[in-house]
Amino acid sequence: MVRAFFNGQELPKYVTHTNLVLLPKKNEVTTFSDLRPIILSNFTNKIISKVIHERLVGFLLNIISEEQARFVKGRSIVENVLLTQEIITDIRLRTKAGPNVVIELDMTKVYDRLSWLFLTKVLRKMGFGERFIGLVFGIVSNNWYSVVVNGQPCGFFKSSRGVKQGDPLSPTLFILAAEALSRDATSLKLVMEVLTAYEEASGQLVNKSKSALYMHHSADVEVVTKVERITRIGRKEFHFTYLGFPIFYARRKMDYYQDLITKVMDKLQAWKGKLLSIGGSDGEGGWNVEKSMEILPEEFVVHILEKIKPPIMENTLDVPYWMLKTRGNFSVKSVWEYLRRRNDPTLAYKVIWVKGLPFKIAFFMWKVWKNKLPLDDFMRRLGYCMPSKCWYCIEPKEESLIHLFFTSHAAKIVWKYFLSRQGIRLEGLTLHQAITSCWTVQVLPRIKPIMQALPSCIIWELWKRRNNFKYGEAVLISRVIYQVSSSLQAIVRVRKPCLINVPHKWKDLLTMLENYTPRMKYDKVIWELPMVGWVKVNTDGASRGNPGRSSIGLCIRNDDGDLVYVLGREINAATNTKAEIVAILEALRICSAHNYMQVWLQTDSLLLKNIVEVLLYCGTSGGDLTALG
């Protein structure tokens, strides 16, 4: 159809027909201008428009004046904004020059009123060929409309002017037509004559009620009145908005941005309103202690006031409380934990992503588990009718996920080979049940990850075999079993790097894991005496609950190993790290009080060891460590 159009054929009406839906702009509709037309058209028109537009793009820079920046690739509307700002600033600074006028024009229905005859004349004047002009005229003029009323299309009429909003070609055609306005207008009357001639020729209409003119703040009243009489446009005061940017006349003020601030505040207020419950939005949102006393026991209210401490006084700001943390403070980790659904995960969430299993295999297993593979049965559910063939079977069978991975002859042999060793029988099981049996079978803890990865490896190799058969390469079933065994062997090596000779055969691999006894490695820890003249401080801190009830302990020994100071006491609720910090700070204060200057500090917290080393390296004092607590 697209080729036929470019070869000169007219598009049929069922392609160019468009439904119009009129949506009200305000609550009370009195005129057609209070309605916003929404076009529901055929996408074929946009293909043709896009092709014509792409052919025009390369010429626009050469035929469109530099002052026109919108819809021209390679130009920025920021240039127009900067030029306008420069003009306004120049008007303000030229106090001795004659009165200058800036006219802000608002065109009424710019797309809907564009004359086709005027458009073709402009294109012809610019040097476009008749064949190209005919293509443009054929795409913009062959438009038929129906108005949707109460869900039903009514009427069938042809348009007489205008271009479609949302069409890829419409902005380009509009700026080509508007190029006729680029004239050397040296006077206000000539500008208005040019605008009037443009309105008559193009069918466009300047909306003078929405237009405005701007002049110097000290312009004479008689001059302003004369300008308003010539243009029939009312004067407004600076500043104004051009292409979404505020144009400043004098020094920038906060008031210039008030509209933008108001819009942002309204948007935030709308978001807040959506978060309120229906009942909560009726009140002022404060904490009503008296009402709480009426409906709750007194001890409950006292407990709430002590623990939550809600604001009671009027005009008191609420304190944000992050509900995912017990202490109410926000952390990115808590968001991540919530989004990744760590709380009460299903079995599939836990076991599909086995350590050592390649991500591509685990992800493929996830697609199989969710039945999202583009097999023939899946495509039929989407509405695609196509012939189906199982590439495994000699006898004709339809391809489906269950048949491919579980009920086919090859799949049964592979599953039976690996599951029979663990006593899992396939009779009466579905694919999901067989997979779940591997995940939940009662085996030794060191074998469980291998059994959890087994279904993924089997399904992955069966899928590879299916693709090889489909594209002309035969793969034996024994090869599939070999590849699955290789994958399981690799997983064992990743999880148990201390093992040297990991067998390849499945039964031997299981036997080795069943008989495997891990060897414990012990590191001998010896307490060393400090150097002569030094004291050695050992500290520790712990928290029950983290944060929760906490305590610290420390001891100080001299160079003979004799205890010179011991302390153990409970502190306020804290985390493990804070308890360790308090213990270290307490030990340092005791050493300072007893004039121990040469101190060897030992702690079982690697985190604090690294922090203290960095603080000492940077030359900071113990106060920085206090800030960490």
TrEMBL record:
Residues 531-629 form the RNase H type-1 domain. One of its GO terms (molecular function) is nucleic acid binding. InterPro entries: DNA/RNA_pol_sf, Retrotransposon-Effector_Assoc, RNase_H-like_dom_plant, RNaseH-like_sf, RNaseH_domain, RNaseH_sf, RT_dom, RVT-Znf. This is Reverse transcriptase domain-containing protein. Residues 4-247 form the Reverse transcriptase domain. It holds the Pfam family zf-RVT. The gene is LOC107801860. PANTHER family: NON-LTR RETROLELEMENT REVERSE TRANSCRIPTASE-LIKE PROTEIN-RELATED, REVERSE TRANSCRIPTASE DOMAIN-CONTAINING PROTEIN. Coiled coil: none annotated.
